[in-house]
Amino acid sequence: MKSVDNVVLRAESLTKIYRRGVEEVRALDGVTFSIEEGEFVSIVGQSGSGKTTLLNLIGCMDTPTSGTIEIDGHETSRLSDRQSTRLRSEKIGFVFQHFGLIPTLSVEENIMLPTLFARRAAKGKASELLEQVGLSHRHKHRPHELSGGEMQRVAIARALINSPALLLADEPTGNLDSTNGEAILRLFTDLNRAGLTIIVVTHNPALADAAHRQLNLQDGHLLLESQL
Amino acid sequence: MLVTLLKMAWRNLFRRRLRTVLTLAGVSVAVAALCSLLSFQQGYQNGMKGELERLGAHVLVVPKGCPYDAASIALHGASWPCYLKEAYLTQVKRTEGVQTAAPVLMNANYTESGEAIVTLGVTPEILAVKKNWLIAGAFPTSNGEVLVGSAFAKKHNLVIGQTFDLPGSAGISLKVCGTLAPTQGADDTYLHLTLADAQRLMKRPGELTHILVRLSDPNEMEGVVGALRACEAGMEMNIVPLSHLFNTIQELVNSMRLLLGSVALIALFVAGAAVSNTVMMAVSERVREIGVLRAVGASKGDVFALILLETLMLCLIAGVIGCLASAVFAPFIEFWLRNRLPFSPTDTLVKPSLTLSLFCLLLTGIFGAIAGMLPSWRAAKLVPALSMK
Predict the structure, then answer these.
(1) Helices (DSSP H) in B231-343: which residue ranges?
(2) Number of structural domains, chain B?
(3) Which of A113, B19, B70, B285 might form a disulfide with B62, Cβ 3.0–4.6 angstroms?
(4) Model confidence over B249-297: pLDDT tens digits?
(5) CB atoms B297 and A62 under 8 Å
């Protein structure tokens, strides 16, 4: 059930501990925050501060050691693997620094991949998204035939194919030059203006500043939230 | 969904071509070995059955000595090392349960080119044994007349009424009184004379090489064989029930089949392990990609199905190649086996068939599924967040 206060994501006392033999690493420690529908939030911090861990927990790619995450009214730590897969498929779109395109599939097939696992037909939607990211002419190409910027645009189109409630991006401009980085930033801004909730982990100041709000992490703790 | 998964699995197979080709080769060899072995088993059994059915007799009476050698000569045609007295025939005919006893005197001469000319002296009683014979013309009734097998007639361009010199035997002229329709057996190459004429020409008066016996009731085999052995001439003859002969030869061949079967089975296990290892390596190389698939909504089951599909595809392609190789190399395998078997029928020994090939493919699929379980399971249980690192 959807929250009445338009909160699309609520994290409460989120803690993630990794164990390396006898050593205990607290990647996240008691992180609490919430994100409303239509917000554009950036997560910043130094390497090892827990940004990607937080993004993985939000994206149901991992489970917290303690604490809770609620996405669109669903408490994710109580979900089975099947349920969290379904939630990921229906509510969340992922964009990665390394693009994560499947090299054996064409651009169009990569974009349609999430619909395959969601058992949906979305050929028309794929064409629309291809047009939106300006790659209609490249739909039959394989990822290795594209530039970094084009690959990231394909990855964004793939993340949007199932009309997610949340777009999660992990260093989306990390592997791009400044021109392509700016293009991705503009695309994110446009998508957010169209109503999409975006959470982006980034070291890119321009992308971080483009967000409405920044969550600053240090050593697994949420230091401060700054409204931009 | 299935089409896209198939497409993905197919393309994934060829990301490491050399590795895939080597694995395919290993599995193909194992499948070819299995398919050839099964083809041999079926071909041999059918060939033996066919050969014994064409002989038409339930019991073979041969001179003392190795009954299997004697049976082999009777079935394939050659000169005999020892003979039966024609007088024993009367005792065989008198034995209770014997419906027909057809005496035969067999001899083989060789031409300068090495062709074996097998002549048989027979009486009209043989017609009651060889129920599959279709004769054009007449059965020989007097000296110099010959009933010619279809293959011999074709090879030497003989027609009814024609007189020819018996190849390999100087000064013997024979007149074709009839020809046999093809029997698909050794009879096609034989020349059938009257018994008296054959005894005269071979200088074996009053002698036979074997007697073909049909029983009134084949279920009474044990009783009749006992009675034949107990008759006055019983000590001078070997009574060979052909069903027993069939079973004994099968047992002899079984040991060879067991050996080959073990090799094929070991090869299949090794190939299965190689497939498992190959797919496991492919999974290790694609951990991050599997993480991406999980991130975009693939369930554990989807990942399991994708990897299993890849394994199955690999095995089935290898299966098809193996079955085709088995069909292509069947004549060579037949040649190799024929020189090593204690007894082999004239029919094709290694007979690949569609049913056998489909069975081998099914078996390969099952092996593939088993081999693919471990890598598929390992891929499915990867934690998405960890595999993305």
Answers:
(1) 242-285, 287-295, 300-338
(2) 2
(3) B70
(4) 777 777 777 887 888 888 888 889 999 999 999 999 999 999 999 999 9
(5) no
Same domain for B227 and B253?
Answer: no
Residues in chain A: 228
Q: Which candidate from A53, A56, A118 shows the least CB-CB separation from B297?
A: A118
Handedness of CA B141, B145, B148, B154 (dihedral sign): negative
**By the CB < 8 Å criterion, does B388 face chain A?**
yes
Q: Which of A62, A89, A103 sits opposite B385 (nearest CB)?
A: A62
Terminal CA-to-CA distance of chain B, rounded, Å? 28
B171 burial via Cβ count (<10 Å: 0-12, 13-18, 19+): exposed
Sign, CA dihedral B330-B335-B341-B346, equals: positive
Asked if residue B252 and residue B217 are part of one domain, the reply reads no
Q: What does DSSP assign to residue B341?
A: -
Asked if residue B383 and residue B263 are part of one domain, the reply reads yes
Has residue B25 been placed in a domain? yes
Q: Residues 301-320, chain B: which have Cβ within 8 Å of A?
A: 302
* CB-CB neighbors (< 8 A) of A47 in chain B: none
CB pairs under 8 A between A and B: 78
**Interface contact B384-A62, CB threshold 8 A:** yes
The minimum CA-CA distance between B388 and chain A, rounded to whole Å, is 9
| Beta sheet of A74-75, edge-to-edge order | A23-36, A7-20, A66-71, A74-75
User: Which residue in this structure is represented by tokens 């957010």?
Assistant: A192
What ipTM did this prediction achieve?
A: 0.88
Give the CA radius of gyration of chain A: 17
Question: Which residue among B175, B199, B232 closes a domain?
Answer: B232
Q: Do B296 and A114 touch (CB under 8 A)?
A: yes
Separation between Cα atoms, residue B4 and residue A116, nearest integer Å:
8
Tens of pLDDT, residue by residue over A166-210, are 999 999 998 888 888 898 999 999 999 999 999 999 998 889 988
Q: How far away is chain B from the Cα of A93, in angstroms, using its nearest Cα?
A: 7
Domain finish residue from B184, B205, B232: B232
Show the domain range for B224: 88-232
* Chain A residues close to B297, C-beta within 8 Å: 85-86, 88-90, 114, 117-118, 162
Nearest to A62 among B288, B299, B383 (CB): B383
Does some domain include residue B239? no
Q: Which two tokens stand for residue B109?
A: 């001469």
Distance from CA of B283 to the nearest CA of A (A): 14
The answer to whether A215 and A43 have CB atoms below 8 angstroms apart is yes
Are A82 and B299 in contact (CB < 8 Å)?
yes
Low-confidence ranges of chain A (pLDDT < 50): 1-4
- B329: burial class by Cβ within 10 Å (0-12, 13-18, 19+)? middle
The vertex-A87 CA angle with A55 and A31, nearest 5°, equals 30
B65 occurs within a structural domain: no
Measured CA to CA, the distance from residue B284 to residue B263 in angstroms comes to 31
A81/B297 CB distance under 8 A:
no
